[in-house]
Amino acid sequence: MKIKIALPKGRLLKNTACLTHNAGWGLEGYSEDARLYHLYSRRFPELNARIFQEKDIPIQVAVGNYDLGICGLDWVQEFMVKYPGSNLLKIKNLSYGRSSLFLAASPLAGYSYPSSLKTASQPISIASEYPNLAEYLALNLRLKRFNIFPIWGAAEIYPPENADLIILQAAGERQIFDYGLNPVMKVLESQAYLIANKNSWATRDLSEILDGLFSAIETIETVRDASTDNHGYPVERATHPNLTVHTDWWEGKIHLALPDGHAQKHVVNILEKAGIKIFDYPSTSGNRTPRIEIPGIAVKVIRPQDMPLQVANGKFDIAITGKDWVEEHLYKFPSSPVMNLLDLKYSRVKIVAAIHNDIPVNDIRSLREYAMSREWKLRIASEYVNIADKYARDHHLYMYRIIPTWGATESFLPDDADLLIENTETGNTLRRHNLKIIDTLFESTACLITSTESLRKPGAEVISTFVEKLKKAIEES
Amino acid sequence: MKIERCKGMRDFLPEEMEKFRQITEAFRDSCLKWGYEEVKTPTLEYLYLFTSAGTLTPGMLNRVYSFLDWDGWSGERVVLRPDVTIPVARLFTEHLADRELAKLFYIANTFAFEETGKKNRERWQCGAELIGLRSPLADVELIALALQVLRRLGLYNVEIKLSHAGLIRSILQKSGLNEEQQNQVFDSLLDGDMGIINKLISEKPELYPLFNLQGRSSGFVKNLISFLTDATPELKSQIDDFIFISDILQELGYNYRIDIASIRGFEYYTGMIFQLYADDEKIGGGGRYDALIPAMGGENTPASGFALYMDQLMQILPVKTSAGYSKGKIVIKMDRKSAKLGFDIADSLRSSGYIVKFHFGGKGPADVSWILEVGEKIPVLTLTRISDNKQFYLNSPEELLEKIQNN
Q: By CB count within 10 A, which of A159, A291, A395, B113 is most buried?
């Protein structure tokens, strides 16, 4: 019987690869430039490893797709505070990959101590990639009223204009100061952790594999920072000496959110055609506040996935994102004031339903019949949780589970999911993973969004100027 | 594919519903006779209703079913209500704040997560709230009402455990703990976590008598006060009320015990707290919560209330059947051609107070007094008395009714 382990990519990859190497597992191809997601062991033929985003690993181990997993304690806790009754078991601290989760605020906010939050009369907004920990913390700090905004990344750019507080991972307080923020408290000390599925741990002999791993732990060189052991308590009050915060660049302006990542080249291209100059975007130094040459508009760079929610809440007035993310938002929140202003007509992708080639059906209706005849609980993996959920409901997929993913969803099939809701430009990636498209949900392109509220704001005329310029650029190309 | 009930949720089968209704009907009838009015609050409330008043312990808040609903784009979370007193206090401030006095009762479910899924995550309670009175007599009224309902259900040996939130807070203030730690100890008491109390006592042995002795008279409370030499006038008057309550419960002949560490439940309690036990099962509790309505932005309105826990009550109550129908059960057999007459006769029998079931084949009916066969030919009606299998041949509904009534 196979023993399956979920291994992290990203931050923890290098040390985890070193650990598994020293443990003598002989995993081929587990390296930073790994192109394969599935790994096999030369020494233990029953050992199967698969590379995931760290955030995916606790879910995969808890549902029993994997017997073991290695990921940061931060993601383990993020999962466990929400699902204390799950089948996830913390086995061992692996002592590397040390980092901390901080609750941080802008120096302008006046929230230097956790106790200062309790007395706040206004609702406190918290943006974080760790929404479960954020809620847990807010309840335990006894915040009177709070709103939590789950985000995909770039938390550090949110305060103070877009969130009062954030929870983010950092190497230490210094890094928080470098973002121009104050740490309010340390939420968690995180290190790489070995986790297991409860049933696997209770019923299977994993000792042969784990013995090598445990004895290899000491071979991993880790940098220990003696000053970071005050778990759960406020950090020493300190304000960055050179910290100066300006707010006039933002206040009274129309707020534009531009995407980070690979979408940037398209945005630069369309702005250029529209004759709009933008400086330091994409930024080589990690600057997320480029200057745009339109008076009355201030820009921040965030994840496109996060834009609809931010625009709905008036944290931004306009944003360049994808129609897929707008739909994802509106499926969940039909009363949201977000609206599409302009189709930018690039980044054209299809949102499709795909299954593995081995499944002998070719459309969604026969998949439903097939699944029912096999007594499956259909597992649907998607980055678009709400789109996938609506699709499953609309097609009466009966018993199904949505497995949220954070990228590389195509590699979930066939072992860790049965159906995929994913975007594709050419279908090549899907074909390479031996998948076939059985349905197309809709076509998505980049778009400019706003909210009904923002259009009524003073200074909103600049929005129509911006739209006109972009519209002309699109028509000309 | 097997379809299952959601983990931690419960079905009520006919026998259980019988008990459920027995409890709610006794409760409802008593409350109406004591001049209370029934209200109902929604199942969903905003989460901030429960966080803003600072009135649920973190232990309880960490078990709420909170989520983002269809309007949740603003980040505003909603919860399946974890408690009913707070929503009723909201209802009062929203709709009834112009009243000086409101006596309200409700029958409602609450939701709290529980890891194993073996205990109920949805729980039912019957509760009453007396809003607008500071008098200790109001507290006694609530205890008396609760006990009356329980007696109607056949529970005579109910033990009352009394404690006092104000008293505990004062003791903790004198313990040398900082405010944060005092709150923590108070919350642990409410959550029933005695570990932290035992630790506190091992550090400060002089607190031992407060948390470990139990008294059966107001003299015990008077003895306790000697610990609190510098009590504020407000606390003194609260304790006087507490002594009064103990005295009057004694006069009324109720079985009570003062057990300071026995408080459980809600951080919104400010004064007297009581718990009701039968067969070692906690079946109810309540107390005074004078600060809750002001904390929700309402007027400075005192209040107290209680709730009976229906899930526990249903476990200890004996089974009774169809209490409301003392008259017999009749089964009617008919075919297509006699159906019209059959339905008509059934209606007239039901309005005379009988339970009438139709039988269209299958296994014969059990637990009935009469079987009536409705035919087309004279004699149209054949009535069989089950007790002696005797048959009567009748020709009209009037004859039938007369025969049944006279037997």
A: A159
Whether residue B143 has pLDDT greater than 50: yes
B310 and B335, same domain (yes or no): no
The single residue listed with the structure tokens 């305060």 is: A159
Whether residue B227 is found in the same domain as residue B102: yes
Contact state of A144 with B51 under an 8 Å Cβ cutoff? yes
Cβ atoms B288, B172 nearer than 8 A = no
Nearest-Cα distance to chain A for B293, in Å, is 15
Question: What CATH number does the domain containing B337 carry?
Answer: 3.40.50.800
Give the count of Cβ contacts less than 8 A between chain A and B.
Answer: 66
Give the nearest partner residue to B74 out of A143, A313, A377, using CB atoms: A313
- Closest CA–CA distance from residue B114 to any residue of chain A (Å): 8
Please state, in angstroms and as integers, the Cα–Cα distance from residue A451 to each residue in A61, A294, A309, A345, following that order: 40, 20, 10, 20
Task: Show Cβ contacts of residue B359 under 8 Å, excluding neighbours closer than 6 positions.
Answer: B331, B332, B333, B365, B371
Domain presence at residue B3: no
Within this chain, do residues B166 and B195 fall inside the same structural domain, yes or no? yes
Q: For residue B391, what are the domain limits? A: 329-405
pLDDT of A446 over the 90 cut: yes
Same domain, B278 and B153: yes
- B77 vs A148: CB contact, 8 Å cut-off? yes
Neighboring chain B residues of A327 at a CB cutoff of 8 Å: none
Closest Cα in chain B, distance from residue A137 (Å): 10
Could you read off the pLDDT of B191-204 as tens digits, one per residue? 777 777 788 778 87
User: Does B62 touch chain A if contact means CB atoms closer than 8 Å?
Assistant: yes
Q: Over the stretch B39-76, which tens digit does the pLDDT of each residue have?
A: 999 999 999 999 887 678 778 888 899 999 988 888 89
Domains of chain A: 3-96+191-219 (3.40.190.10), 99-189 (3.40.190.10), 254-345+448-476 (3.40.190.10), 349-444 (3.40.190.10)
The per-residue pLDDT for range B210-242, each reduced to its tens digit, is: 676 677 777 877 777 776 666 677 778 888 888
CA nearest A146: which of A126, A129, A170? A126
Number of domains within chain B: 2
Interchain CB distance below 8 Å, B52 and A145: yes
